[in-house]
Write a structure and sequence with these properties.
The complex is a heterodimer of chains A (about 500) and B (about 170).
Chain A lengths: L1 H13 L2 H19 L5 H8 L8 H26 L8 H12 L3 H34 L4 H18 L4 H16 L1 E2 L6 E2 L5 H4 L4 H19 L19 H23 L6 H14 L12 H16 L1 H7 L5 H12 L6 H6 L1 H33 L3 H19 L3 H19 L5 H23 L6 H4 L1 H26 L5
Antiparallel strand pairs in A: 1-2
Helix pairs in contact in A: 1-17, 2-4, 2-17, 3-4, 3-10, 3-15, 4-5, 4-6, 4-15, 4-17, 5-6, 5-13, 6-11, 6-13, 6-14, 6-17, 7-8, 7-20, 7-22, 8-20, 10-18, 10-19, 11-12, 11-13, 12-13, 15-20
Chain B lengths: L11 H24 L10 H33 L12 H20 L3 H15 L6 H21 L8 H7 L1
The chains are: A mainly alpha (about 500), B mainly alpha (about 170).
Amino acid sequence: MDTLTLLWNGIAVAMQPGNLLFAGVGVLLGTLVGILPGISPSLTVALLLPVTFKLDPTGSIIMFAGIYFGAMYGSSTTAILLNTPGEAASIATAIEGHRMAKAGRAGAALSTAAIGSFVAGSIATVGLALLAPLIVEFAVSFGPWDYFALMVLAFVTVSATFGDSVLRGLTSLALGLVFGLVGIDKLTGQGRMAFDIPNLLDGISVTTMAVGLFAIGETLHVASRFNGVVDAVEAVRGSLWMTLDEWKRSWKPWLRGIGLGFPIGALPAGGAEVPTLLSYTIERKLAVKPEEFGNGAIEGVAGPEAANNASATGTMVPLLALGLPTSATAAMMLAGFQQYGLVPGPLLFITNADLVWGLIASFLVGNLMLLVLNLPLVGLWVRLLSIPQPWLYAGILVFAAMGTLAANPSLTELALLVGFGVTGYLMRCWDYPIAPMIVGLILGPMAESQFRRALQISLGDPWVFFKNPGSATLLALAVAALIAPLVFKKLRSFKGEDA
Amino acid sequence: MSIDSHTFGPSWRTLAGIALALEILALLIWLDANRLPEQMTVGVGPSAAMRLVALFVAVLGVAHAMTAWGRRVRETEEGFAPRDAAPATNHAALAWILGGLAVLAACVQLGGGFIVGATALFVGTARAFGQPVSARSVGIGLVLTALVFLFFARVLSLSLPAGPLERLLLA
């Protein structure tokens, strides 16, 4: 019952007029930017990170959460009306949702997505509020070796479940780790990989990397494929009010989506695409009218959208309770915390209880705002989709340059931005996943400090990681997570389905 | 994701190139780690993580080289089409965007200011997506970047690189 009191206090924090305003601005900004085709929630947070340097920490982190949920809502609108999933997790929504829009049922598709997201977000937030304190209690007894092993596990799951090739995922992660090394070592003050460039001694900024990889890389990639053909936007036809039949067909997929999304998101398993695609597959198997799948089945929008939202809230469990980001957006949120010198983890629940519980409660507030604001405003949002591509991408690049130059107005920073942009372009061309690189940059230095602390305590005995049951189990899980996809691949190739 | 899992991936030449790049990167990290002084205290120093990461990168490089070798055999003997050879790349569009970024960099370095540089980037990117360079695109770019600059300077009190135009606006 202690948790409920804390959550109640959190709601009081979230309901303060200032914080309500921040949540509202975040939700609107997130929807605004997220609805633009090709912009994912993580890029939205990355672009807006530098703008919030000077604001109040609690307010801005509440705003980040709003941006995150708003951007997810926006991405699904784009997926339904434009068939352009802003991120991998919206692919399933795009399949059925766009078909529904083409068949004149865009209103119902948008409604089931919005209401499903709201239900999923609210239930998952309650799950987060109940689960996080338990993990915190457990994590207080964690030694540095346990944290290190946990981070290794996160590295493996993030790289092996994003994208389809373990080798490419691990390479992306390794690049992130390399860039994480750049700069002054925090313990000894020695410069690493800085090559006597003063700017590099401060380390690589996660904003620059994320904006370069996502915004510039994506723009270059779209431009390189540009041939003058523009996607058509489907008009919102059909009533926004779902019929009784549509409600009946939606609520079970919502609940199943939450059941898949929240646990998978809360485990350090990374990525919302696994639960969304799982949910899509399950709904197709369970459907009363399976023939509708592929032609606009409402279950195929309701399930994946709920799964997507629940798993996004689920990733907040390891992020808040352990300081462990398991998705690109969670990594950007962590960067948001770090911007104010806050370190998510068990300690934050004690030192900044107001902030943590205010944030958790703001998820509820934000989801409610999205439901109330977005369905009536959908006509306005759709207008954004008709911005011509040249102005849209030109604007995105101006904002990308602005974000980087505002954080650090120097040529080196701009050169890094362009370098990451070209890297992001090449990674897209060659099918390397981007998210592990961002997670590697953020989590790498944290893993290193735990590694060194563990070895200091053990007086330099490297076996310390295997002698402790906790860390040994986690490392064994990491090895299993690394080998499992390879084994499955081998099995598949035996069946003659070799890729 | 489900669609991509059955594609063939980059050609063996690309993979071999990536393998080489990874080995060079590993070597660079290792050399930089050697440059650091020996650690005297208990535990490990700042070079340990560098060596671990360098080894990791080197192993990934070897794995890429092995994949490249296997793919070369399948491309030459079994006639698989490499993935990166398929879609036509619009080089002109890439050049317009990178050109815009280069002009912005020059403006930052030479004191031309954010508005002029970012407008060049705006116009270049719009051109890459088929919008001809015209008074209209320059106009939209100028207004947008000037608004961004003023918002940052006045509301957030963050300074973007200033040139003659920016000083005029703030005066």
